[in-house]
Amino acid sequence: MHMAEIHVFEEFPLRVKVDEVFAQLCDFESWKYWMPWFVSDPTAKMEVSKDKTVVKWKGRVIGEGELKRVTLIENSIMEFEVSITQPKPIKAKVVLTFVQNSFGTMLKCSYHEKLPFFKWRGIDERSKEITFDIRRGLVSVNEYLQRGGAKSTFKMVGIQLKRGI
Length: 165
Known about the structure:
With 165 residues, the chain is α+β, with helices and mostly antiparallel strands. It has one domain (4-147): Alpha-D-Glucose-1,6-Bisphosphate, Chain A, domain 4 (2-Layer Sandwich), CATH 3.30.530. The chain has helices at residues 18-26, 31-34, 36-39, 123-147, and strands at residues 4-14, 45-48, 54-59, 63-73, 77-86, 90-101, 104-115.
């Protein structure tokens, strides 16, 4: 049986030196200040393992899951395994690649998720959702590093009925 797969690749230029970007992304504790998902759910519980390789979260808006760093090559590559249990189960692999260049750092993000074969119909929507989330995260970390804090806010207002045309 074949699996449906999602592959998303995004890259974003940051006007910050590669070692600063790398250090920021290694520091799970600071993610609550810039990572859009944590910013969107300020009451969520976040726990970082003693060895600083795993972050677990649980919140009303962001659900429940964990991110485990499995590869770390200083100022070059970080690889993560993502396991979300709520609101819907997801297992994915994320690779961040850091490239120093003349303006600062090119941060590249690769996302790979396998889905059961019967979920292939929703793959386009899921790919768009993941692409949006990755872009939002890249913009937020850039904002945090350049301005000393993420200026973005997010408020979940729930489902609202709107009049049609």
